[in-house]
Predict the structure.
Amino acid sequence: MFNIVLVNPQIPPNTGTIGRLCVNLDARLHLVKPLGFDIDDKAVKRAGLDYWHKLDLIVWDSFEDFLEAHPINSHTHLATTKTDKLYFDANFEKDDYILFGSETKGIDEHVLLENHSRCITIPMGSEGRSLNLGVSVGIVTYEALRQNYEGFKKITIINKMKEGL
């Protein structure tokens, strides 16, 4: 199971969308406070649709608390625009932690500098500064899934329809 970590997310619909993605990928979502919204915000639940109650969610009081429980190591990836290492050149393994910073600030620069070998980025055109957080999480997490597809339950609409019959 992959662990998606949002450090200080600010926009409720992004978090709801990412929660829905996590349910569909059997990933755990970690939210690190402070959050820019109340976790029960209607916009979070609306974006997460009817998936939110199925979400494997852990909420941390601070980044320090998260790091105490899960120190940055070889199973940690820090998504940022401030590196040249492309996400598809990273090696992802099951149970890895993929961290994303807030929509407005990203991950603190001192954390990135101390852990530069764990940083990854998504390539963009010269006019772009960053991508939407939900889009970024989807891109990177699906690459992690692609690298570890073995054993992942194949879910298709046809299989779902057969189960319902």
About this structure: Residues 154 and 160 are 10 Å apart (CA to CA). Helices lie at 12-24, 42-48, 63-69, 109-114, 133-147, 157-164.
